[in-house]
Amino acid sequence: MVPPVKTLEQVVSYKQRIQKAAPNTTFLMTLYLTADLTPEYIRSLKGTNVVKGIKWYPSGVTTNSSQGVDPTQYEKFFPVFEAMQEVGIYLNLHGELGCTCNGTHEDVDILNAEEKFLPILKAIHTAFQKLKIVLEHTTSKAAVDIINEINLADNPTEDPNATVYVASSITAHHLFLTLDDWAGNPFNFCKPVAKRVLDRTAVVSAAVSGKPWFFFGSDSAPHPVVNKMKRDHPPAGLYTQSHALSYLAEIFENAGKLNLLKNFVSTYGQQFYGIKDEDLISKKHVVLTKKDIVVPRLIGTGDDGVVPFKAGETLKWSIEWRD
Amino acid sequence: MVPPVKTLEQVVSYKQRIQKAAPNTTFLMTLYLTADLTPEYIRSLKGTNVVKGIKWYPSGVTTNSSQGVDPTQYEKFFPVFEAMQEVGIYLNLHGELGCTCNGTHEDVDILNAEEKFLPILKAIHTAFQKLKIVLEHTTSKAAVDIINEINLADNPTEDPNATVYVASSITAHHLFLTLDDWAGNPFNFCKPVAKRVLDRTAVVSAAVSGKPWFFFGSDSAPHPVVNKMKRDHPPAGLYTQSHALSYLAEIFENAGKLNLLKNFVSTYGQQFYGIKDEDLISKKHVVLTKKDIVVPRLIGTGDDGVVPFKAGETLKWSIEWRD
Questions:
Q1: ipTM of predicted complex
Q2: pTM: predicted TM-score of the whole model, two decimal places
């Protein structure tokens, strides 16, 4: 079992490790929401400026989530959410009901697990209206609708400078995939799973909408090919990091909204998390050029190599880093 | 491309080939329904006693179905169905709408493709009430409901000796699997895909119901492991032939209906197809014993080996052939 990141010391040491590997990346760190986290501990984090968010995994739903939250018991965490709201720590939701929670959710499967989670999102926002919440990697029309509904209720005049409390991140792969794509195919299988065509349409509309509560979150997971090819249930997750902007540019171009791509990828997320430009380690910027690029069949070599999303396909937009 | 079996000569030669490989099996042969089949040709088969049925594959839905029926154009085949009804040839349906038919079915995906096909089944039965039709490998509550509905309408007094015109076969694997099982897992992926828990419940109820219009059809497909492990879309199909009765016995035992297992496996299908005991090549029978048996991880060796359903798992019922 891979041990979860639960204490401040673990966060600091993990951040140092990954910062060394990617010195130009500005990392925002999260703790894992488990029964060990107390409101007192959350309050002790005030001013340390290390922990940005706390991640809710429903128990047993995705890779390494066995110590997560039992969604039938989530009100137990209300004192923790109270403290998070006070200290300004974000709640990052993997918004799915688990199918394995004591058999209480017989009618939950991987296709409706996100939709069935949404009442919990609404209940938490109602109870903690100033708690910043992100519904991560949104995949369904139902989720898009509720995020819009909450934001329009919180900000009925659609004031562009109003604070967003409930946002939703969207991955690159959920803009392309539907359930037919992961049927029997481990390389297109992630949690939450891609849904039906009408859901994909809603998620694409949200991404290109220019609404500041929808922004990019890659949720890129570099599972080694040898794990993906196991005969039993493969690990959930897609690798999109290497070509994320190229995937996104195609979607925004098709929608005639290339002008909104930067907001989706950078501006809205930065705004929501309150990150100023001067806080960013790298001052480089990216230039997208309309030039074909072929996604490799494998990144790395042998069993440890990773099969990227759209492996072997030709994408229309190449990226270049500039100072 | 694997060429389909379309002519009488091809059927005879194919039957000879497989009969040699399995000399004790009584094969019922089917032609592939394509635009090449004419009503005249069907009528010329009268009395040849070779072709039992004609198989409808919707174009592009499953393995080797590229020359199949475009479900938006199915009424073109009505003269063929008329001739089949006359001659006594059965219609074997792979009952799914295709998602690839000229983009006319944007709202069809692998999860609702069977349910969306059902109006076609109903329309064909309404037009040709004495045509024998089998909805093969039924997977959904919607299909179970319509098959019951048709049979109760045709035979409102539930006379056990009434002729069944519309039947449904059920596989072993669809009694176990739901969509969570084939998510990213090529070895549990078949077409039609296993559906939701409520669908599986309906299919199990149908199988153990003792109604003569539900009977076993294995739809077992021995795809070599090397094909299943391809990185692109894997072929649809599960291999269940080797342990079919053991899988089924568990389901019937759990339902307290072991006494109905033989009807489901043998009697009802034989009745529907009008096969007398004396027409069967083998006179052997099977005895099921409650004795653990482990399903091999691989049947055969190397790349050509086949991963059977429930590979590596222990089943509770063993079978034995007796004279």
A1: 0.87
A2: 0.91
